[in-house]
Amino acid sequence: MLSNPIKMTDAFKYEQAPDTLLFDLDGTVTNFPEYAVYTNRAMMHAIFEYTGIPEADIIRAMQRHYAARGFESPTLLQSMEAEAFFGDFIRNETRKKELYKRVRRAFNAAKTKRLKPYPGMPELLHTAKKQGRQVIALTDARTLSTCSKLKSHKAQLLGRRHFSRLIAIRDAEEPLMESRERFSKALRRSLQIPLTETDTEKPDTHLEELLGMSAEEIGQRVAIFGDNYSRDMALANRFAPMRGFHALHGVRDSERFMSQLNEIYGLSGSLPNAHIPSNYPPNIRPFDDPSELYEPLGLEKP
């Protein structure tokens, strides 16, 4: 909980509770910083244990890959192989298959263990959907990565009980990944959530087009929840008096894992979402605990 939680002001209260709720996923609904650190470290250790290549060299290869293809590109091993990172080690097809199997197994084990919704989030999402709200996952992650995270290795992490719809960034062409389209379609089917793909990231998301509402309607009927102030909360400000709820648990999670994330991704300085303003505008409030959100959203607690 916040040490000095912002009280509900007249300016923040809705004349009518919002009927459409937009939730960012990574760092808002799920603990992406911890997941990113431990899945990447698991893959790095698996590569080291099987090939003997120094971990520092593996880290540098990972940084090159993510710099070229984005933080969640699924083709790490393929791009390392394409740059001849493994040398003669995987010219033997049996060794290559074994390496891929070990790294995939390490990734899935770390993902199953580490990727979790933040406490109280599944209950809030389910309650809002059950009580008639349109609950939409609005993410800047790409479709394949998003579906893969929602569909955990051994069980469904979040699904149609929690979301009415998923909006994600269209997958980039990944020529290194075989059967990407088949794998992506299988994941989509398993989630059973209507999917809309877009090419525009927040805060430039075309909400009027995606939601079928005017800017004025968005301001009155929509609320957005996210950890990235410069992206998620910028949408709230653009469509003010649209309400924004700033997820401080995600910001603090990024701060907690900042050094490891910077090392993995080759970043420097603070992460883009690690910003907490000293003063919030009237239409935005921070929260730490999802239980704080039932009252301002007009929801009955289960």
What features would you describe in this structure?
The protein folds into two domains: 20-31 and 116-293, Rossmann fold (3-Layer(aba) Sandwich); 35-114. 44% of the residues lie in helices and 12% in strands. The chain has twelve helices and seven strands. It has helices at 32-51, 55-69, 76-82, 93-114, 121-130, 143-150, 180-191, 207-211, 215-221, 229-238, 248-256, 258-265, and strands spanning 20-23, 134-142, 165-169, 195-198, 222-226, 243-247, 284-287. Strands 4-3-2-1-5-6-7 form a seven-stranded parallel β-sheet. The chain is elongated.
Descriptive key words:
302 residues; alpha/beta; Rossmann fold; 2 domains; seven-stranded parallel β-sheet; 12 helices; 12% strand; elongated; disordered N terminus
Summed up, the helix count is: 12
Strand content: 5-15%
| SSE string | EHHHHHEHEHEHHEHEHHE
Described by its quaternary structure, the protein is single chain
Relative helix content: 40-55%
Radius of gyration: 20 Å
Provide mean pLDDT, rounded.
86
What is the structure about, briefly put?
With 302 residues, the chain is of the alpha/beta class.
Topology:
Blueprint: E1 20-23, H1 32-51, H2 55-69, H3 76-82, H4 93-114, H5 121-130, E2 134-142, H6 143-150, E3 165-169, H7 180-191, E4 195-198, H8 207-211, H9 215-221, E5 222-226, H10 229-238, E6 243-247, H11 248-256, H12 258-265, E7 284-287
Parallel strand pairs: 1-2, 1-5, 2-3, 3-4, 5-6, 6-7
